Structures are given as structure tokens and as C-alpha cells.
Amino acid sequence: MVGSKLNAADHFGTFKARWGINRMNYTVDPGLYALGSPTSESDVYVTANYKLSFDKLKSALPGINAWILVLNTNGINVWCAAGKRTFGTAELVRKIIKSRLAQVVSHRKLIIPQLGAPGIAAHEVKKQTGFRVIYGPIRATDLPAFIESDYHSTPPMRKKDFPLTERLVLIPMELIPALKHMAMILPVIFVLSGFFGPGSFLENAVANSFFAIIMLIGGMAAGTIITPAALPWLPGKAFSFKAMAAGLITSVVIFALFLMFSANTLQTGSVLSMFLLASGLSSFLGMNFTGASTYTSLSGVRKEMKLAVPLQISAVFCGIVLWIGSLYMINT
Amino acid sequence: MNNLMYLKDVTTLKLDPEKCIGCGMCVEVCPHEVFAINSRKAEIINRDACMECGACRMNCPADAIRVDAGVGCAAAVINTALGIQTNSCCCVIESPDSPPDFPKDCGETSQKTGCC
Predict the structure, then answer these.
(1) pLDDT at B107
(2) Does residue B47 sit in the same domain as residue B81?
(3) Out of B29, B52, B111, whose CB is closest to A117?
(4) Where in chain A are the domains?
(5) What is the mean pLDDT of residues A14-34?
(6) Other CB atoms within 10 A of residue A116 CB
(7) pLDDT digits (tens, 9 = 90+) for B94-113
(8) Which residue of chain A is at minimal alpha-carbon distance from B47?
(9) Residue A195, min C-alpha distance to chain B (Å)
(10) Per-residue pLDDT for A165 more than 90?
(11) What is the pLDDT of residue A23?
(12) Which helix (H) or strand (E) segment is A312 a member of?
């Protein structure tokens, strides 16, 4: 038996999962749960065994007595698991049989989140188990309104949008892997810079790499933070293009700040190379946000990649050549 | 948030009006209001909003809908192109006809690609 109220540990667990800490082990055991004290007349809600999904469902049903049937999706949320069909007809039928649901409840209906539909064939479930699938609203928070309107979703309840808050919570998922890569690349740039110039190794390294490092961090931030946050306002439709634009804007801002506040003179080659690298990097990182977004199609992603990936590779290649070239120029 | 529309003229979605029985399941499951029922038949009213999730095809009892379902995820496309075997959970490209079961060690790669 479970209650609908979330405690501090649940909220802390959510926070950790968003930052990628132990995300893949954030699960609940599959099977049938009693929310409150349900009877044989009570509704049956189906969800995935990702604890975030389970928590959202039960906290959306305060004071309601119901059954919750948790499918084994290996700790993946409903929508992603439905795409893989682990949240699917076969698993649902298995769990209905295993939990003896037909004996537990007297009615024959299941409420399944609409985003589970890519994995579930409602007519197949009916044929195999006798249970009728009712697709509930996309957001668990709409469940009380859904119940009130006699188990019907209004069109807004059926539409998946991608609001700012939702985009923001997805940022760490893109940012953390990118930071790990940066932690490897930036020291290389620093050390390489030390070999060129009139001063000591350390003086050279600082003087030559400072602009480059700031520009690359800017490019990374543009692709992983600015692109998700400013998605609707960036130009274009392709994520690689939106992110390239974010990278260019960031580069211009950083360059302008350097012109205003830095005593060091910047070489044209170095500036150009960093514009190429930062916007290429941003474009690539932002393109990967398609996987987290809620409206990109596979055909569309393939189409944008056909053009974007060769351009990204060229930009990065030219950027590296130009930057190393500009280092050599210092010595001559 | 109407300006969040993806590329035009790319979706593989097809509806066969001959087979359609007008049950409205596609309208009910589509997360982007691609379908509407008009004179007892389903109709595609917003084709470019389709994200090829496959929900409509899966739930069409008359088998009137065709779509190459998949997840629009660049990391998955890269992994597939490079021949990297991923068990990542949603970042995987597969046909709707592939078996419903998958290896149990799903997880590690999806954490890297960040798609789940």
C-alpha cells in the first residue's frame, strides 16, 4: 500500500535523477500497488517502474483510492519505454495475468497514460485479456480533471508541449556529459599553448589559451544551456541550425567583451578559429537535444543531420588547423 | 509555444481512407493533434506536426495507418551509423516489427547519450 504524498526523500531522489546520479537504478518493483484503500470497483492506473513516473502518478491522485499496475520497463519512463515497446502490449498482458487483476477488480478497464500509446495496442489488450484501455491525459496533474469529466481528456490534455520548465530540467542531462569532455579538451589546449610565444611556458599558456578556453566554454554553454532554454526564440527549425546561431551569438558577445576589457591583442586567425570551433561545437551539442525534445521525428533528424554533420566536422577541422596555424604565427 | 514546429515535409505518415473505420483512436493517442475525424473518417490535418512516435499506427484497429516509427534522436542516428550497438532505452532506431523484448543491460549507454 502506498500514499499519495511525496516526502523529502522522494524530492531529493528526483533531483539526483535529473542530474544523472543513480538515474538508472531509480526504480520501483513492478507489480500491483494499492493507493489508499481501493476496492474491487476502484480504477486501475498503469505506469512504468521509473520512480519519477510512479511518484508523479500517485501524487496526482490525492485522497483517491485506486490500483496502480507497474510494468517492468527497466526503470525507463513511460514515453521512452513505449517507444521501445517495453511499456508494451506484451508486458501489460503479462502483468495483468501475473497480478490476477481480473480477480482483484470486478470491472474491465485500465487507465493508461496517453504517452504509453506508442507501445500499447488497445484493441490487442482487449482481445487478449478482456480489459478495455482508456487513454488518460499526458500530464498526471490533469488526472483529477480527467476523472471529473467522466474519463475524457480535453484536446489540451492530449497535446504534448515543451514548456520552458520542462526544457530547463533536461539541461543537466546534456550538460554533464559535455563538461566531462571539456575537462579533457581544455587542458590539452592549455598545454599546447605553452609552447608558443616569447614568455615562459606558463605565461605563454595563459596568454594564448585564455581566449580559446572562454570561447569553447561559451560554445558548450550555447549548445547545452542556451539552445534548450531559448529553443522557441532561436532562428530556424533544425536544432543544429538553432544551436549554431546560439553559438555564433555567444561568440560575438565573448569577443566583444574581450575587445572591451582585455589588454591582450587577439590574432585574427585565433579569433576566426574559435568562432568556427565554438559554433560547430554548439551546433553538434544542440543537435543532440533532439533526443530529449518532445516533437522531433526520426525522418526530420536524419534530414537535418545529412547537411549539418559534414558542416560541423568541417568547421571543427578548419578551426583546429587555423588555431594551430595562429600559434605558429606567434613565433615567426 | 506554437513556434516549436519541426521540419516540413519529412514524415513517413500515411493514412488509408479506404480502410479507416472512423473510430477516432488516432485522434485520441496523437500527442500533436495531427488527426481529426471528418464525416466519419479520420483525416490528417496537421501532417508536419507528426513526430513519428507510432501511437496511431499501433492503436489503429483497422490497420489504416502506416508510419516508420522511431525516436527523433541525433545520438541514436550517430550510434547506428557508426555501428555502435546500443541498448540505450529510447535512443534506438528499430522497425515497429522488431521483437518487444530487449537485453536486460539497457541503461549505461542511454546515460551517456542522455536520451532517456
Answers:
(1) 37
(2) no
(3) B29
(4) 8-158, 164-331
(5) 77
(6) 27
(7) 333 333 333 333 333 333 33
(8) A297
(9) 34
(10) yes
(11) 64
(12) helix A298-331
Length of chain B: 116
Residues 15-34 of chain B with CB under 8 A from chain A are 25, 28-33
Residues 6+ apart with CB under 8 A from A5: A59, A62
Q: What is the ipTM of this complex?
A: 0.85
H or E segment and range at residue A31: strand A31-35
| Interchain CB distance below 8 Å, B58 and A119 | yes
Instruction: Indicate whether B95 belongs to any domain.
Output: yes
Band of the pLDDT at B116, cuts 50, 70, 90? very low
Number of domains in chain B: 2
Joined grid coordinates for residue A2: 502506498
- Which residues in chain B have Cβ-Cβ distances shorter than 8 Å to A88? 100
The type of residue at A217 is I
Cell numbers for A89, please give them.
502490449
Q: How confident is the model at residue A330 (pLDDT cuts 50, 70, 90)?
A: confident
- Are residue B60 and residue B83 in the same domain, yes or no? no
Say yes or no: B65 contacts chain A, CB-CB below 8 A. Answer: no
The residue to which cell 536524419 is assigned:
A302
Residue B97 has a pLDDT of 37
A239 touches chain B (CB under 8 A): yes
B8 domain residue, yes or no = no
**Could you list the residue range(s) of the whole structural domain that residue B101 is in?**
74-113
Partner B contacted by A231 (CB < 8 A): yes
The answer to whether residues B85 and B103 belong to one domain is yes
Q: Which residues of A touch B77 (CB under 8 A)?
A: 298, 301-302, 305
E strands, A31-106, in order: 31-35, 44-48, 66-71
Q: What share of chain A is helix, strand, coil (3-state, %, to 5)?
A: 65, 10, 30
CATH architecture group of domain A8-158: 3-Layer(aba) Sandwich (3.40)
pLDDT tens digits for A87-142? 999 999 999 999 999 999 999 999 999 999 999 999 999 999 999 999 999 999 99
The pLDDT of residue B86: 56
Residue to substitute from B2, B3, B6, B102, interface A, most A β-carbons within 10 A: B6
- Mark whether B62 and B79 lie in a shared domain: no
Question: Which of A76, A90, A177 is facing B90, going by the closest CB pair?
Answer: A76
What are the tens digits of pLDDT across the range A282-298? 999 999 999 999 999 99
On whether residue B7 sits in a domain, the answer given is no
- B20 and B53: one domain? yes
Q: Pick B89's closest partner by Cβ from A81, A122, A177.
A: A81
